[in-house]
């Protein structure tokens, strides 16, 4: 089934769905412009706008459900800058965007609430909430825009918010560097997206999704492939997929709620959104671009998992896991209509269980004086029972423990990949096995085993404002997957936006791939138990084999970037500066000096004597009369 | 020819806006003659504002009840769509300018006293004011209304003089820097008289050619009178000089910086907005109605004038160090951009209507922004009056962020940055010109805009990125000026973000083009 037609909408809550974006944007504006005056209530305002936006999102969702499925793609026109020249700006409310809206505002609100407690002692808490609000607004614009330009504005907006929040503690040089790195690496992807939009505009003469869908322009295969690959480049940057993955691990320098919201649950999934949204147009089944998407997805899901096995920093291990899980989503998104629903469903459940675990990690860090090294944890399950219980649920969900969320969504991805291409399918199964290992390692090192705490550590359970979000998120991590996947509920819901595959998949609990996956996960968990649960964990990391170093150093991603891009880039910069100084500047400055000099000389004509003004009028009149004779007698 | 004189039929209802303004001006003269000195100001201020507001309401009402399709008052005045739109624009701009005039301290205590003399001293201590300003302004505005609506050259000439004479006087009434102000007045008067002579001579020659001063009749004569080309060409050129002088097109722009600088700033605001709108209205009417058939010959000449005007305005503005002179050159450059639209006349009625509506929109957008900019100029004051030298504006953004931000907004609008009104004005006019095949002209326009952007942005840089001087100017914002600034900001932003309603209005007004 093809995606439904996009129709114009007016009235109801959907008619005012711009509130979704306006509310958090207002919060950010008040908090940033209000300055210290808003310190006292800044965090409350930040939470209030996020929750209000969520409420609007739910109402919009309910109104959308009231329509016939074929009429569930609706554009709310907002603003027409130059009619006829630029596409009007509008919001696209459809099952795909509303799924994202609910995830962003729902999980976002929980993380806002959690941050009240987490950032309680930070003097800049108000600024933190302002940036979080800014992020939510930009992310909502990204997923709601009905055209690529609007999407791009949101895309850059989340990039900015991400930069500001990674570097939130900019007094730490590592945080400042990480923020810069994230920004620069993302720039590469953003250029890809920008160029893709340029090509879309020149090819279709429009940038709106509806326009591109229905333009029927005779686009050559070459330009379609180019657009697809460039969009993929953009997606790789934002979603930390190979080869633009290197920034995500460093991004963990930001406060932990940021890692949960931006670098796990929402922003990093924007690439999956982009591919899914453009799927029917630029990633048709079997196209080069779609194949590239699946390859990137599989490569990243393995790379992320391998990195996750070697990290001792709890947040970096989780970041590797995020990379890997997004790899799964990418893989599914590259498969086409058979995979879209699983990609987005996994994206949503991942949003819950990964945010749950990140916030759980934050809770642990909060208790352990901001220690992130898991080798200095151990045995925390007794002192932090709620954090432990909720973390365990997230953990079981991500490794795909039967009947929890991740089990259904990840299994869906593996099954559809298997059907699409067996190699990809088996690689995805392998990834699931590694996931079982590294996540178990993380849990055992943190919550089980002996206490390896620093002398001054006095862990304690976090306050209720932090534990309640954990409880809600873990509830979602239990039920959401089954609810979405069983009976193809989500696939049917999403169909108007992304289409349906030829035949609907059905859920087989005892398929070969499913059983092998479970076995591998169990084996991975068991291995982790022997190495880290039952055995002794040294407080300083052992040197390890070549493979361990390989994983610890992020598969030499940074080394490759430095050798291939940074150093030649620096040479290129020097060369460009040289030419700029000698050639371009000379030309530009010369031109400016020329105009300035002309101005200075011409100025003297303005003598201030009325007689010379009168003369100039007379001469001008004479020239005019003369000119008329010349032209008239031509 | 019998000896009887027929009484002319005059459609008083159609001319009501003008009559209201002139009527109020005459009442103002009577007030000057009979009301006691201490009451005059209190009568003038509401009377002037009321007259302008009333005339505006009547204009709107006329536009809603149906636009006449034939000239009125025996063919002397054409109250058509463009005229009504221009009337509305002028009346609003004049209203806003009068708000600026209402604030104290702009006008001389006793104009007849020699600057620096004991008489002046005495007048100052007595607190005397020249309340004649108000009727003078109303007469000038009345002239501005008639000028673009005049349908024959004689009525147009009368309107030109009715508009100009009060302005000559008003220019000389600045309270501070009186010598400069008087010099400006004399210069404006001498050069204005000189250019009027050109206009009148051109009228005479065209009458000799066509046997009529009626614009439409001149238009029909163009194809039918043979062998009189000398009369025609000289006449058209002379007429053109008179009109181009009023819009300040090069090479007839020399008066503008001197006059804009010397005049009391509220009067500069009125001239830079109202007079410019009126003069462009008249220019358009003459060239499109009377000389439309001669378009092949004046288009290349107008190209030259437009290019010269844009380039001279933009380049000379770069080296200005005086804020008012800089704005004057900016006004010259904008006159050049508007001339691009005048050249966009073609054979296609629909196209001409859209070119005309683009020009009308540009006039509205520029008018509001320019009044706002001069309003800000009045607020930045030194001990000796307004601080005109650019160096005095350094660091204003740090001391008075709101004032500096507002001024920056106006400058960006002048430069034509998107999301300000100036962008749409330029965009619409350039678009119309490209459609008419004047792409090279648009290229020059864009390059001039780029040069012009330099000196606009330079002021912004100066305000926000320089350190304020220790003895920097004070910023005084009286109530009226506050309102003017608010209105101008609103217009600049709204016309930049939601231009459609005004664009539609301009389009409706331009739909029928000028009546003949």
What does the model show?
The complex is a heterodimer of chains A (634) and B (516). Chain A has 24 helices and 3 strands. Chain A is mostly helical. Chain A has a 3-stranded mixed beta sheet. Chain A is globular. Chain B starts with 11 loop residues before the first helix and ends in a 5-residue tail after the last helix. Chain B is built from 20 helices and 3 strands. Chain B has 516 residues and is mostly helical. The interface between A and B is large, with 34 and 42 residues.
Of all protein chain pairs, which has the greatest interface, and how many residues does each chain bring to it?
A-B, 34 and 42 residues
Q: Low-confidence parts of chain B lasting 5 or more residues at pLDDT below 50?
A: none
Cross-sheet strand order for the largest sheet of chain B: 2-1-3
User: Count of helices of chain A?
Assistant: 24
Number of strands of chain B: 3
Tell me the structural class of chain B.
mainly alpha
Number of strands of chain A: 3
Oligomer: heterodimer
Overall 3D shape of chain B? globular
- Give a short account of the largest sheet of chain B: 3 strands, antiparallel
- Tally of helical runs of chain B: 20
């Amino acid at each position: 089934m093809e995606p439904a037609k996009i129709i114009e909408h007016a009235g109801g809550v959907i008619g005012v769905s711009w509130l979704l974006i306006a509310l958090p944007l207002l919060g950010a504006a008040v908090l940033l412009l209000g300055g210290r005056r808003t310190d006292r209530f800044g965090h409350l305002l930040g939470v209030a706008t996020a929750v209000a936006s969520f409420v609007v999102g739910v109402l919009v969702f309910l109104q959308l459900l009231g329509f016939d499925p074929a009429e569930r793609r609706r554009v709310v026109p907002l603003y027409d800058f130059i009619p006829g020249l630029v596409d009007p700006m509008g919001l696209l409310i459809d099952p795909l965007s509303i799924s994202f809206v609910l995830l962003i505002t729902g999980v976002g609100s929980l993380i806002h609430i959690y941050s009240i407690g987490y950032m309680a002692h930070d003097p800049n808490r108000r600024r933190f909430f302002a940036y979080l609000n800014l992020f939510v607004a930009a992310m909502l614009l990204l997923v709601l825009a009905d055209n690529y330009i609007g999407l791009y504005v949101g895309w850059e907006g989340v990039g900015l918010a991400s930069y500001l929040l990674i570097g939130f503690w900019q007094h730490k040089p590592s945080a400042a560097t990480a923020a810069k790195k994230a920004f620069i690496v993302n720039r590469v992807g953003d250029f890809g997206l920008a160029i893709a939009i340029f090509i879309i505009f020149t090819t279709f003469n429009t940038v709106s999704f509806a326009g591109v869908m229905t333009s029927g322009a005779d686009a050559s295969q070459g330009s379609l492939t180019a657009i697809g690959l460039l969009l993929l480049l953009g997606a790789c940057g934002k979603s930390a997929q190979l080869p633009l993955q290197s920034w995500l691990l460093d991004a963990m320098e930001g406060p932990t709620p940021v890692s949960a919201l931006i670098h796990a649950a929402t922003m990093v999934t924007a690439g999956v959104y982009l591919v899914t949204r453009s799927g029917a147009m630029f990633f048709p089944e079997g196209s080069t671009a779609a194949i590239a998407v699946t390859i990137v997805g599989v490569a990243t899901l393995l790379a992320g998992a391998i990195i996750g096995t070697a990290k001792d920093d709890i947040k970096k291990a989780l970041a590797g896991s995020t990379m890997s899980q997004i790899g799964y989503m990418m893989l599914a998104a590259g498969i086409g209509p058979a995979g879209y629903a699983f990609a987005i469903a996994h994206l949503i459940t991942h949003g819950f269980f990964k945010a749950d675990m990140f916030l759980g990690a934050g809770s642990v860090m909060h208790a352990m004086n901001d220690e992130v090294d898991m080798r200095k944890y151990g045995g925390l399950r007794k002192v932090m029972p709620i954090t432990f219980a909720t973390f365990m649920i997230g953990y079981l969900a991500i490794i795909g423990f039967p009947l929890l969320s991740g089990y259904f969504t990840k299994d869906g991805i593996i099954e559809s990949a298997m059907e699409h291409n067996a190699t990809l399918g088996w690689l995805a199964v392998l990834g699931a096995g590694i996931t079982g290992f590294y996540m178990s390692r993380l849990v055992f090192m943190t919550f089980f085993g002996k206490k390896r705490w620093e002398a001054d550590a006095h862990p304690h359970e976090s306050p209720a404002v932090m534990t309640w979000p954990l409880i809600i998120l873990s509830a979602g991590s239990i039920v959401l997957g089954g609810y979405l996947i069983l009976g193809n509920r989500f696939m049917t819901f999403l169909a108007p936006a992304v289409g349906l595959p030829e035949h609907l998949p059905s859920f087989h609990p005892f398929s070969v791939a499913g059983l092998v996956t479970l076995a591998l996960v169990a084996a991975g968990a068991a291995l982790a138990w022997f190495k880290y649960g039952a055995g002794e964990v040294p407080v300083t990391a052992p040197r390890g084999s070549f493979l361990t170093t390989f994983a610890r150093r992020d598969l030499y991603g940074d080394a490759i970037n430095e050798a291939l891009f940074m150093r030649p880039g620096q040479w290129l910069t020097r060369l460009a500066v040289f030419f700029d100084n000698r050639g371009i500047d000379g030309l530009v400055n010369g031109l400016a000096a020329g105009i300035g000099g002309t101005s200075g000389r011409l100025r003297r004509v303005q003598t201030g004597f009325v007689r010379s003004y009168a003369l100039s009028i007379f001469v001008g009149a004479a020239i005019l009369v003369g000119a008329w004779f010349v032209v008239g007698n031509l | 020819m019998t000896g009887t004189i027929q009484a002319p039929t005059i459609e008083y209802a159609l001319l009501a806006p003008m009559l209201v303004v002139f009527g109020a001006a005459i009442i103002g003269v009577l007030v000057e003659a009979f009301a006691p000195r201490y009451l005059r100001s209190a009568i003038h201020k509401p009377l002037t504002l009321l007259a302008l507001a009333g005339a505006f309401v009547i204009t709107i009402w006329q536009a809603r009840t149906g636009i006449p399709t034939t000239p009125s008052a025996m063919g002397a005045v054409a109250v058509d769509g463009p005229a009504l739109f221009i009337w509305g624009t002028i009346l609003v701009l004049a209203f806003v300018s009068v708000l600026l005039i209402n604030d104290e301290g702009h006008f001389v205590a006793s104009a007849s006293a020699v600057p620096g003399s004991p008489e002046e001293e005495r007048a100052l201590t007595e607190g005397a004011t020249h309340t004649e300003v108000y009727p003078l302004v109303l007469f000038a505005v009345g002239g501005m209304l008639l000028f673009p609506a005049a349908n024959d050259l004689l009525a147009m000439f009368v309107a030109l003089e009715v508009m100009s004479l009060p302005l000559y006087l008003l220019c000389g009434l600045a309270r501070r820097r009186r010598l400069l102000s008087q010099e400006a007045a004399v210069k404006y008067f001498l050069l204005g008289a000189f250019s009027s002579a050109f206009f009148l001579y051109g009228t005479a020659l065209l009458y000799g050619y066509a046997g009529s001063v009626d614009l439409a009749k001149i238009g029909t004569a163009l194809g039918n009178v043979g062998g009189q080309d000398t009369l025609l060409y000289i006449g058209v050129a002379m007429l053109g000089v008179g009109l181009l002088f009023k819009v300040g097109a090069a090479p007839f722009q020399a008066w503008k910086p001197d006059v804009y600088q010397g005049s009391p700033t509220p009067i500069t605001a009125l001239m830079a907005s109202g007079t410019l709108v009126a003069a462009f209205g008249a220019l358009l009417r003459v060239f499109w109605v009377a000389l439309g058939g001669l378009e092949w010959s004046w288009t290349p000449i107008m190209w030259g004038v437009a290019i010269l005007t844009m380039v001279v305005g933009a380049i000379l503005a770069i080296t200005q160090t005086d804020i008012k002179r800089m704005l004057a050159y900016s006004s010259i450059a904008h006159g050049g951009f508007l001339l691009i639209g005048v050249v966009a006349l073609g054979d296609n009625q629909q196209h001409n209507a859209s070119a005309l509506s683009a020009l009308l929109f540009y006039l509205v957008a520029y008018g509001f922004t320019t009044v706002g900019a001069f309003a800000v100029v009045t607020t930045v004051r030194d001990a000796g009056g307004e601080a005109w030298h650019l160096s005095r504006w350094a660091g204003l953004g740090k001391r008075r962020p709101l004032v500096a931000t507002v001024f920056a907004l106006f400058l960006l609008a002048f430069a034509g940055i998107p999301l300000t009104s100036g962008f749409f004005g330029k965009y619409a006019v350039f678009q119309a010109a490209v459609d008419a095949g004047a792409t090279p002209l648009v290229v020059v326009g864009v390059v001039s805009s780029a040069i012009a952007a330099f000196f606009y942005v330079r002021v912004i840089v100066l305000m926000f990125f320089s350190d304020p001087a220790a003895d920097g100017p004070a910023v005084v914002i009286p109530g009226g000026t506050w309102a003017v600034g608010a209105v101008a900001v609103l217009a600049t932003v709204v016309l930049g973000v939601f231009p459609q309603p005004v664009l539609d209005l301009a389009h409706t007004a331009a739909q029928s083009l000028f009546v003949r």
